[in-house]
Amino acid sequence: MEAIENIIGAINGLVWGPPMLVLILGVGLFLSLGLKLMPILKLGAGFRQMWKGRSAADAESDGDIPPFQALMTALSATVGTGNIAGVATAVFLGGPGALFWMWLTALVGMATKYSEAVLAVRFREVDERGSYVGGPMYYIRNGLGKKWAWLGVLFAIFAAIAGFGIGNTVQANSVADVMETTFGLPHWLTGLILMILVGMVLIGGIRRIGQVASALVPLMALSYLLAGLVVLAINFADIPAAFALIFKHAFSPIAAEGGFAGAAVWAAIRFGVARGVFSNEAGLGSAPIAHAAAQTRNPINQGMVAMLGTFIDTIIICTITGLVIITSGAWTTGESGAALTSMAFSLALPGIGDYVVAIALAIFAFTTLLGWSFYGERSVEFLFGVKAIVPYRVAWILAIPVGATVNLGLVWLVADTLNAMMALPNLIALLLLSPVVFKLTKEHFEREKALGL
After folding, report:
1. How many angstroms separate the CA atoms of 369 and 202, rounded?
2. Which of 70-84, 188-202, 238-252, 322-336 bottoms out in mean pLDDT, i.e. has the lowest?
């Protein structure tokens, strides 16, 4: 087992080395500048579009689910253990400065997520069941042409396998850990309960996933934010010092303190960007698979809804988690992952803090299992046709109890590595198809201006 961990660790260090981090941030920055910072400047318009998108734009809209449900399905997959365990791991390994790099990843990631969704709607197809299918594999094939089709196949292979890491075993493992620590539930029992609940939802396909996600995601996100804000109100006096630590150690090394081993600036950047991407998935190419199913005929409108996913996930939810951990002082104790977040909440809310984290993590992970199962299904459908969906679904459900009982370190390593392998084909496609995004965006806003909207 140790030899396997060492091999995967070496591959992980390679795929998450400087070239990958430069590529993720570089593509996001390039798209941000090409869009003239539109995703940040039009944030308010994006929220209005999201509110309007609670039902189909019109009776004749193409797609399977309303735009709001498409965003909630994408958020159900992104708001997961990355927001609780991932942020804690980033701070534990990279110090408080890692949070700054998570923010930066999110700000440029909004342009990435916008572009992904625009291309997903623009180049989507209707499959033999009459369902709308799209995502990087489709915009590579339909946007770049047959000579690039191999890149779409690579993405679909990586996504179908990566789902079992980032979207399945990591989620099940984190829930099992926190449930055993908080409620004394054995790992196998948590895995079994998760397996049954996920199986019940997956029978209904994307429409059922969309309905469950649009009910659970807003409720769980708001409840967790409320609990986090209560903790920050209690730790109010420590907030200025926390921000000082974040900005200072984004650019300078931090010494060892208590159970914290110290971290170089490179560690803050590496773990901040890696965990930021793990959490909001901007650049991975996963979210556009959900946005391709939206009931809309306007790629730009769906892109504006999509970019909110990154903002909500990282700028809002991850920031709350990070500030709770830093203001509590728990980050110097040597704890990591969900246990660190749980300790930080418990210090401010004795007796209930760890329950808040346990319940939030369980619901976050449950919805991530749903969202990522859909991504995996669409990927195997692209590779093998609709006949592959049911076997994939069965494998997905059976993997949950296995994930709940395996070694967490190895699971995180595999998930991290597969994320990078997914991101590469997608980032190449985004660069090559960026002129399409810029042209569609320019035409849309010029049309709005002419109409006085």
Report:
1. 10
2. 70-84
DSSP conformation letters of 63-100? SSB-HHHHHHHHHHHHSSHIIIIIHHHHHHHH-TTHHH
Burial class of residue 240 (count of CB atoms within 10 Å of its CB; 0-12, 13-18, 19+): exposed
Cα dist from 225 to 187, 228, 232, whole Å: 27, 5, 10
Across residues 9-30, what is the average pLDDT?
Answer: 85
List, in sequence order, the alpha helices (H) in 298-407.
299-310, 319-328, 337-348, 353-384, 389-403
pTM: 0.90
Query: SS3 for 258?
Result: coil
For helices 170-183 and 187-202, the axis angle rounded to 10 degrees is 130
Structure tokens at 78: 């992104």
Give the other-Cβ count within 10 Å of 394's Cβ.
12
- Does residue 452 have a pLDDT over 80? no
Evaluate if residue 57 carries a pLDDT over 80: no
**How does residue 56 score in pLDDT terms, banded at 50, 70 and 90?**
low
Helices (H), 165-298: 170-183, 187-202, 205-234, 239-248, 265-280, 287-291
226, two tokens = 């409320």
Taking a C-beta distance cutoff of 8 angstroms, is the pair 114, 345 a contact? Answer: no
What is the chain's mean pLDDT, rounded?
Answer: 89
The CA distance from 83 to 90, in Å, is 11
Q: How confident is the model at residue 111 (pLDDT cuts 50, 70, 90)?
A: very high
Non-local CB neighbours of 288 within 8 Å, separated by 6+ positions: 116, 117, 119, 120, 134, 135, 136, 139, 306
